[in-house]
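Dissemination and training. As part of the outreach component of the grant, students in the summer workshop were shown how a complex can be specified as a set of sequence lines and then modelled as a single object. The example used during the hands-on session is reproduced here so that future cohorts can follow it. Participants entered these lines:
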Amino acid sequence: MTFLNVIFYILTFLAVYVQVFFLVTFFENRKKILIRKDKIELENYPSVTVLVPCYNEENTVSRTVESLLFLDYPKEKLDIIVIDNASKDKTWEVLQKYSSYPQIRLFKESKQGKHHALNKGLENIRTEFVGCLDADSTVHPEALKRIITYFSNPKTMAVAPSIVVLNPKNLLQYAQRAEYDMAHYNKKMLAFLGGIHVTPGPFSIFRKTVFDQLGFYTKAHQTEDQEIALRMQKHGLKIDHCPDAYVYTNSPNSVPKLYRQRVRWIYGFIKNALDYRELFFKPKYGTIGVFTLPSGFISVIGTIFLLFFTFSQFYEFIVNKILQSQAVGFHFISTDLSSFNLFFISTKTFVFISIILYILVIVSLFNGRNMIKDRGRIPFWDIPLFLIIYTFLAPVWLMKAVWNAVFSKEASWSKERDYLIGDNNI
Amino acid sequence: METEYKKNDWLKYIIVFFLTCGLFALAGGLSNFFTNQKIQSMRQVQDKLETDILSSETQFALLSELSCEQNDGGENLSAELSDMAQKIEYSENNFKDNATATELKRYYTILEIKDYLLTKKINARCGNKFVPILYFYTTAENCTECTKQGFVLTELREKYPELRVYSFDYNLDLSALRALIKIYKIEDTKLPALVVNEKKVTGFKSIEDVEKLYPDIIKLLPKDKDTSDSKEFKK
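and obtained this result:
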């Protein structure tokens, strides 16, 4: 067995382990997964503030604010704070139409950086709960009520929603829809295990006391939503996930945009995880240290390795083809179908392990998909699309993120927004 | 606000570990099962090869001179030999259990030598009915010339169905093969090596080189291309 094979088996063992761990957790808890389709009423409605930080969002911010106004929640209990983070476009002018709304307050934050904008909002809240909604996302009318039900457990300090890709239009967006669907499942399983490592920017709701106790947002390598979750985990504050609180987000519609977003996310994950390295392998901190963070690192390394491993498997084939073309001319694939023989299909162990791993991933994707009940039947062809696209693209942004993390080249949220907004406004 | 860490469920970590081991064992088991199926199919081809060679020998012995026109099945045998050679090469590269592949290869090598001797006898009595090519290669080192030569011979065999290619791994531990190597004075530093009609050449030879070296081969036109020529030749 070669060195490469040993690494392959170790990494795939860990990858299969993670998937089996989730699957066991799923079977243990599947009856506790609450998916509501109908309207619900709460016994009492606690007061909530939603912060909307925006930077150059003149085209999307109205839709975001309207979706908040459309939330099925008593108006006197819902505050909306919109913070213009030094936009260069007409965001501030667009926002003026809401200046007369009693439940909406508008602020300007001149220091650029999403955390500055959020902190400006946090300084001005008067409610028991606070959340954030990125200005490129919209919410389901029932989302807030459904999230609030999770706070009936006094130990729950934050609740993350389910983020759904809004109206996918091209193949890349369909692939992302499948990826996000799988993420619902992973997030719910991590919630059962107490190991959530990110409270996503779009519509995670916190008890205000979290910020009173732990302080405000920090720059956190442009991924403040990961840092606050890790900070909460470090202090043993429970984060839950509400699978039927749907938040609709615009997904990057081109490879360069997706690449930029993912480099920032993965870079943020690596840097934040390193900042909180004291959590690693410490049973005291529970799942986050023993399971979530190590498996995140393994998935970064594993995905990069897998690409090289796949290439190494093809290397021999390519060398043989070159030798063949030198010897007898070029025959890329035999045109004679009768020469096709089942005998020559690989039956090596790694082939079956890869099949098992792919089956587990597909099962988790279906489980995640079953948690989203507000849309019709979804065709399953986006699953192979997702697997193929991500097998080749993910290692590229992962490698770039690792490179940036090693050389501390930080991505910029506002630059990414500038770039994304280019033609992604819907 | 109280601080409470969710406790790790160590039993679950252990159970999942064993479940994962189980899945790996399943993958290993499936791999073994299908590999065994392949080995079995190779044994079947080998058995058939053996029966066919024995049948040719017996037929030849029984009918003696008369057998020249009736000794059929030569092309089938060539195809079987080539099929078996490909499968053995594949199994050497891909099977974990190399010992089984080597054992099959030793047996196959003996069958090849036996068939080569028979072909020589048939040729001596009936004229050059088949052109046997002995091909020696090495697996002890990375011999790219050998790989290329292998492609050339496969191509030639497709071009001339009555060509019999007998390939021998120089490094195989088999006394019959050692004797053959001694007879043709094959050296492991000069591989690949080809022997046709007792003539030996070493180093990579392209299709054109082989055709030039052994004009006999060109006479072996496929039946469907030139039936009359072929019949003439057989007589």
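Chain B touches chain A at residues 1-8, 12-13, 15-17, 19-20, 23-24, 26-28, 30-31, 34-35, 38, 41, 87, 90, 94, 96, 144, 147-149, 151-152, 154-155, 204, 206-207 (CB under 8 Å). Students were then asked to discuss how this feature might be tested experimentally.
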